[in-house]
Amino acid sequence: MRFSEIPGGQITKQKLIQSVKTARVSHAQLFLGEDGSTSLPLAWAYAQYLSCQNKSEDSCGKCSSCLKLEKMVHPDVHWVFPVTTGKTTRPTSDHFINEFRELFLKNPYSTEEQWYTHLGTQNKQGFISATEAAELIKKTSFKTYEGEYKIVLIWHAEKMHTATANKLLKQLEEPQKKTIFILIAPQQEQLLTTVISRLQITKIKPVSDVEMLGFLK
User: Fold this and answer.
1) Can you tell me the distance from the alpha carbon of 127 to that of 146, in angstroms, rounded to the nearest whole number?
2) In Å, how far are 75, 93, 160 from 167, measured between CA atoms?
3) Which of 47, 38, 20, 50 has the alpha carbon at shortest distance from 186?
């Protein structure tokens, strides 16, 4: 996902690009945007820009890092999202990553409800468990495979259990070197205040009609 593929948000895009150019990338960030907005695509594009081997005013879209991120298979970028029981007794995002890729490669603006419909679990409440946090701590302890950064994208971070959030507090405050956490949520009030206090917040505004028209043109 490249910034140029996302409608609107030019000011936000420029701020994200400048943070990389000036080496002022916060290790723990929160992208606040309504479900189905550009919040996840922007986080995705930001991860791609951070990982790009030939970045300028956007990620190049052609290097090996970009090509892997376009397919959501970059080994240094970890996707975390709400899951449901059924597949296993202690489910994590890794158990559902193929289904997640299938949905979001088709529609990067998919909603939480569409995610559960895709799984066929509309009647179940999604969650991000403490087991997920333990797996993340283990994953981020390793060295990067090929990129400069290890990046963790947590979609619908408000679905973290309290135990999950508490396990990640130290990671959010003092992560492993060159590790970046990007949380994505619709409202900051749905997150623990102890989590919020450790995050740099980026508010994602809705795309205006004028912005959408210009993008479509």
Assistant:
1) 31
2) 23, 17, 10
3) 38
Q: Is the pTM of this model over 0.90?
A: yes
Tokens of 43: 């986080």
Q: Which residue carries 């409608």 as its tokens?
A: 7
Average pLDDT over residues 36-53: 96
Task: Kindly tell me if the per-residue pLDDT of 89 is higher than 80.
Answer: no
Q: Which of 176, 177, 175 is nearest to 199 (CA)?
A: 175
How many residues are present in the chain? 217
Is 118:147 a contact under the CB 8 Å cutoff? no
- Please provide residue 215's backbone torsions phi and psi, each rounded to the nearest 5 degrees: -65, -45
Instruction: Give the whole-angstrom CA distance, residue 103 versus residue 94.
Output: 15
Q: What is the mean pLDDT of the chain?
A: 92
